[in-house]
Amino acid sequence: MTTLHLSFYSAFVLSSLGLAFHRTHLISALLCLESMMLSMYVALAMWPIQMQAPSSTLLPMLMLTFSACEAGTGLALLVASTRTHGSDHLHNFNLLQC
């Protein structure tokens, strides 16, 4: 395993651990999701270079597009929940209420 692979794996694992254990604010959960997507994007962008493929793939650009849509949706949910509940603490949200 090269140091490049180790850094991608460790970034993904650290962000998923942050998502699992530090769920107090919605913004911290969104930042952990974004760091997971960023580590996956960099890994997918470096994959053709590691495999010495002659052409680049379209998959990293597609993933970056979905990541931007996910970030926009997450920020819209953050603003809407802050306006209705008064804060972005995740323990204030009740998913069973409409």
TrEMBL record:
<dbReference type="GO" id="GO:0030964">
    <property type="term" value="C:NADH dehydrogenase complex"/>
</dbReference>
<keyword id="KW-0830">Ubiquinone</keyword>
<keyword id="KW-1133">Transmembrane helix</keyword>
<dbReference type="GO" id="GO:0005743">
    <property type="term" value="C:mitochondrial inner membrane"/>
</dbReference>
<keyword id="KW-0496">Mitochondrion</keyword>
<keyword id="KW-1278">Translocase</keyword>
<keyword id="KW-0999">Mitochondrion inner membrane</keyword>
<dbReference type="InterPro" id="IPR039428">
    <property type="entry name" value="NUOK/Mnh_C1-like"/>
</dbReference>
<keyword id="KW-0812">Transmembrane</keyword>
<dbReference type="GO" id="GO:0016651">
    <property type="term" value="F:oxidoreductase activity, acting on NAD(P)H"/>
</dbReference>
<dbReference type="GO" id="GO:0098803">
    <property type="term" value="C:respiratory chain complex"/>
</dbReference>
<comment type="function">
    <text>Core subunit of the mitochondrial membrane respiratory chain NADH dehydrogenase (Complex I) which catalyzes electron transfer from NADH through the respiratory chain, using ubiquinone as an electron acceptor. Part of the enzyme membrane arm which is embedded in the lipid bilayer and involved in proton translocation.</text>
</comment>
<protein>
    <recommendedName>
        <fullName>NADH-ubiquinone oxidoreductase chain 4L</fullName>
        <ecNumber>7.1.1.2</ecNumber>
    </recommendedName>
</protein>
<keyword id="KW-0679">Respiratory chain</keyword>
<feature type="transmembrane region" description="Helical">
    <location>
        <begin position="6"/>
        <end position="22"/>
    </location>
</feature>
<dbReference type="Pfam" id="PF00420">
    <property type="entry name" value="Oxidored_q2"/>
</dbReference>
<dbReference type="GO" id="GO:1902495">
    <property type="term" value="C:transmembrane transporter complex"/>
</dbReference>
<keyword id="KW-0520">NAD</keyword>
<dbReference type="GO" id="GO:0042773">
    <property type="term" value="P:ATP synthesis coupled electron transport"/>
</dbReference>
<keyword id="KW-0472">Membrane</keyword>
<dbReference type="InterPro" id="IPR001133">
    <property type="entry name" value="NADH_UbQ_OxRdtase_chain4L/K"/>
</dbReference>
<keyword id="KW-0813">Transport</keyword>
<comment type="similarity">
    <text>Belongs to the complex I subunit 4L family.</text>
</comment>
<feature type="transmembrane region" description="Helical">
    <location>
        <begin position="29"/>
        <end position="49"/>
    </location>
</feature>
<dbReference type="GO" id="GO:0008137">
    <property type="term" value="F:NADH dehydrogenase (ubiquinone) activity"/>
</dbReference>
<keyword id="KW-0249">Electron transport</keyword>
<feature type="transmembrane region" description="Helical">
    <location>
        <begin position="61"/>
        <end position="80"/>
    </location>
</feature>
